[in-house]
Amino acid sequence: MSLKDLRLSVKQKIGFGLILLIMAGVNIFSIHKMAMLKVELDEVSLNWLPRAIALSDINLNTSRLLLIQSQHAFPADEAAKLHQANIQINLIDNINENLDTYEELKTDSEKRGLYSEEEGKLFAEFDWKWEEYQDLSRDFLDLVNANKSPEANALLNGEGREVFRSLSTRLEELVTINKNDALQAAGRAEIMFRATRNVTVVLLIATMILSGVVGTLFVRYITIPVRQLEKAARTITDGDLSVQLEVPSKDEIGNLANSFNQMTVSLREARQRLEHQAENLRTKNRELENALHELQTTQDQLMMKEKMAALGDLVAGIVHEINNPIGAVNSSADVSRRCVNRIEVMVEEGKTPHDVKQNPEYQKALNILKENIRITHAASDRIATIAKSLKIFSTLDESEYQKTNINEGIESILTLMENEMRGRISVIKDYGDIPKIECYPGLLNQVFMNVLKNASQAIENSGTIYIKTFKENKNVHVKISDTGKGIQAHEIEKIFDFGFSAVGTRVKMGSGLATAYNIIQKHDGDISVESEVGKGTTFNISLPAT
Amino acid sequence: MKSVIVALFCFLVNATIVLSQVAVISHKSVPEDSMTKSVLLDLYTGDIQSWSNGEPVIVIDLKPRGDVKTAFYDFIGKKSSRIKSIWLKKKLSGEWDTPESLETEDDVVKKVASTAGAIGFVSQSSVTTDVKVLLLIQQGKN
User: Is B66 on the interface with A (CB under 8 A)?
Assistant: First the structure.
């Protein structure tokens, strides 16, 4: 397992741990060296220097002792002698105190191994010389006390001086040793200080370099992969799912890159699935459109058939309606021809016009002729009316949007349906003063015809159809009520569906009301029905009056 | 055979120690038959100047430095140079006529044997029947 495969946290710990370790090392090293410096300096300030001072003091006091002993050798009065003795006692005390000090310091230094053999040897020699000198001093005192001044002086200046010189020499050497040791210690402290400083500086520089290396590694192992990840994420956001990341390591970043790659694969698959589904949907949509188109065509054909059926129905009525006046005209023509024949006979019989006029037969024939003319007129009027209605109704096929008077359309339909309703249904018309509206008149006429036909068929024996038109707010309303058998409540809701006929077995009108509903919808209008079984049905049609 | 050699070796070692023992000796007139460290120190610093029978104490010192002298002064707990300071001070103040320092152990033995109330120290080998041994100090063992 290489370094780059370690977890991020471990990498961080190793990196910072190394830096901390080195810094701690620097600190420990410095503290340790400072402690050593302190030992050196303590040795100087607490040991060598006090020792040197004590030794110097001893040196000074032994010299003083020698000096006072020189004076002591000469005869003097008791008081002077006593004074000199006291000074000597004080000096000896002082020397011993300094020796105590020195020996304490010596023990202390020996414990730490800082007391040299040479110094120990020198001090032992000094100690021996000091003892010798004191023995000598006692001999000297004996001589003085015995008032043998010359001998005393001789002892002091002879053997005494010699012993003192070697004692003094040792002392001076000891002082020199201590001084040198102190200086050496100071020198060592200085060297140690410089070394410590250098090592500390080097370690600090190493720490800085290591920090740099660790930082660079972090950048390499974390920042760069994260940046690549970010870039890849942006590429995906832009829609390019083909991105694949390199997996740089087995740590969290590596895992992240892995997950990212898996994610892009999943995304790619998901997108492919989506595209596939979208393609399916498009295909289905096309099929649906085709089906809808077919349905539309079928519906149109159905409506056409419906129209044709309605027309066929009408044609029978219209033929009958036209036959009546034609029959009237025919019979009138026949009667007229016979009247004319009779008048011709009368004229041929030679009678004068006066006579002809007086002839009752003539008067009768003339009256009949006049009546026939009236009948013929009426018949032709009737035919003209029907023709006009047919013309109006024949706009059935016109699909042009135009301003139309609805009342006129209703009236023409009533005319065309007169044959069907005559003697059976009385029509009460309540045409309001309504404006012409923008519409497809042919389609609207089909609506009215279908509704009226429904009403007519709902009335089984005899009844009334009530037609009312009026304007309310911005709408034109047409209300067509019948006194027919009514519609069952459960049938009302599907009355406008295709294939339903409210007249039971008569499938002829199967799609009539559905067609009516579609047409009204096409005009942004509304058609509704209310009905009560046994009492009748009312259709309400409202159309926007532009 | 082996055990004999070991025993002989032990004897020899023991003998060396015995040979290097320091003896504190006194004139036969001295009433005390034994001695302690603190009394010895008081005697050698002049704090005790007479024996229990009233006889004045004559302290004898061995002048040359050597094992015997070092062993003795180590035993009483004062370096000889320090003892000498005390003697010099007491001489200067006139408190005590301080001890005589003799050059050889034989001198010491002779002096102690011939001086009433005298006390001194020599190596055990130098002891004669003329003196009384008050205490034996083993060298190297305090």
Answer: no
